[in-house]
Specification:
Bound molecules: adenosine-5'-diphosphate
CATH topology of the largest domain: D-amino Acid Aminotransferase, Chain A, domain 1
Distance between the termini: 54 Å
Oligomer: single chain
Largest sheet: 8 strands, antiparallel
CATH superfamily of the largest domain: ATP-grasp fold, B domain
Length: 446
């Protein structure tokens, strides 16, 4: 049965993105929101807005019982979590399920499994995905851990089992640094995630970040190809593009990720993240069990509305497409226009005195910004996602230069100057990009 009313438990550009698709599908859009967002576009455009004003603004979106109550009071059939906030919270999914409300995403068991990087690694290795050499159990004992690191071979990386957002990871070059790095990673993991379990993995030198978009209905899975996301600051993406791989490689890794998703009974949109080393070998990193910021890149090159497809499988539909329906056309690039200074990446909240976003052939801009918009300092700094499509990569890059030059944002600092320099940088133009790109190109930071 189709949903009649869905609660959006998110804010900003992704709330607007979800709202528009609900409209297209003839579904009523309700939204829960904090005080800072009461005048925002998604709140103004929603059919029903549910204020949840809190002293700590994050609680407006993170308080599980408040969101569940809003969904109940407003008689919503389902909740769309977007990304961040409660999108990967198994307890939230459990509570909604208990109340007979559908969570648009996978089951709480699947979220629990995938939220633990150690278990996710083991599950995906069992399904045949390649993983980097590393520990299959959490470690805390320094001696055991350092023996394992020796066996794996330095450099290694210590990561939190419950990790996210690149927090706490420690790269260790040699044995003498190991003990202190282990302690630091465990204490950071404990304070950020309330879980001090960590694991050790081979550090992949000169790696590229490549990820696959998957859609599954609980039984079968299909993939929509890859996105290349190596241009990162502090392990967070700034520029994403696709396609990146040969047709043969896409189909090889694509088959594997579908098998991985099917092996855990996955339902909804998922992203399988990999590192690819300089030999072209792939190593599974993690599964993000939700819509991702950069899903838009895939929409431009495949022509499918991924948010709509995610809602349809949540409604109980079988996959409405088969693998052979998915074709890739041209090239797309996305620049994240964060409200940050383009040198240190410090958030720059404030009022947008004026702004103009580009449009035209081959251009897409997903943003909740408008002239007069007050960018709050308490949330993520993503202000707009600017995308261009081209017949090939050069065409998409040329169009991105034009689009960036046309964009006007007055009142806050933003990343347009950085993106504009990247679009002219030689290694970027030659596709010679690894996850160290920004570290190796400090001259781009102006
Ligand atoms: P998180 O969930 O915290 O974002 P991920 O496991 O997805 O962590 O990794 C995020 C980023 O950290 C990767 O894109 C990469 O830049 C770096 N990274 C993680 N694991 C490794 C590794 N084994 N070797 C090299 N870099 C890594």
């Amino acid at each position: 049965m189709g949903f009649k009313r869905v609660l959006i438990a998110n804010r900003g550009e992704i709330a607007l993105r979800i709202l528009r698709t609900l409209r297209d599908m003839g579904i009523e859009a309700a939204i829960i929101h904090g005080k800072e967002d009461r005048l925002s576009l998604p709140v103004m455009m929603s059919d029903i807005a549910y204020p949840n004003y809190r002293t700590n603004p994050l609680d407006s979106y993170l308080d599980i019982e408040a969101v569940v109550n809003a969904a109940k009071e407003l008689e919503c059939d389902a909740v769309h979590p977007g990304y961040g906030f409660l999108a990967e919270n198994a307890q939230f999914v459990k509570r909604l399920t208990e109340e007979g409300i559908t969570f648009i995403g996978p089951s709480s068991d699947v979220i629990t499994l995938l939220g633990d990087k150690i278990e996710a690694r083991a599950a995906m290795e069992a399904a045949g995905l390649p993983v980097a050499k590393g520990s299959s159990e959490p470690i805390s004992d320094e001696k055991v851990a350092s023996e394992l690191a020796e066996e794996i071979g330095y450099p290694v990386i210590i990561k939190a089992a419950a990790g996210g957002g690149g927090i706490g990871m420690q790269i260790v070059e040699e044995e003498s640094q190991f003990a202190s790095a282990l302690k630091l990673c465990m204490s950071r993991a404990k304070s950020a995630f309330g879980d001090e379990r960590v694991f050790v993995e081979k550090y992949i030198q000169g790696a590229q970040h490549v990820e696959f978009q998957v859609l599954a209905d609980g039984k079968n899975a299909i993939h929509f190809g890859e996105r290349f996301c190596s241009i990162q600051r502090r392990h967070q993406k700034l520029v994403e593009e696709g396609p990146w791989l040969s047709d043969e490689k896409r189909s090889e890794i694509g088959d594997l990720v579908c098998r991985g998703a099917e092996s855990v009974g996955y339902k909804g949109l998922a992203t399988f993240e990999f590192l690819r080393d300089s030999n072209g070998d792939f190593y599974f990193l993690e599964v993000n069990p939700r819509v991702q910021v950069e899903h838009t890149v895939t929409e431009l090159i495949t022509g499918y509305n991924l948010v709509e497809l995610g809602i349809r499988v949540a409604q109980g539909e079988d996959l409405p497409l088969s693998q052979s329906d998915i074709k890739w056309r041209g090239h797309a690039i996305q620049c994240r226009l964060n409200a940050e200074d383009p040198k240190e990446f410090v958030p720059s909240p404030g009022r947008l005195w004026d702004c103009h976003f580009p449009s035209g052939f081959g251009i897409r801009c997903d943003t909740h910004a408008h002239p007069g918009y007050e960018m709050p300092g308490c949330f993520d700094s993503l202000l707009a996602k600017l995308l261009t499509w081209g017949h090939d990569r050069d065409d998409a890059i040329r169009r991105m230069r034009t689009a960036l030059d046309e964009t006007q944002i007055t009142g806050v600092q933003h990343l347009i100057p950085l993106h504009r320099r990247i679009m002219d940088e030689e290694d970027f133009l030659n596709r010679d990009v690894t996850i160290q790109y920004i570290d190796n190109h400090q001259e781009l930071l102006g």
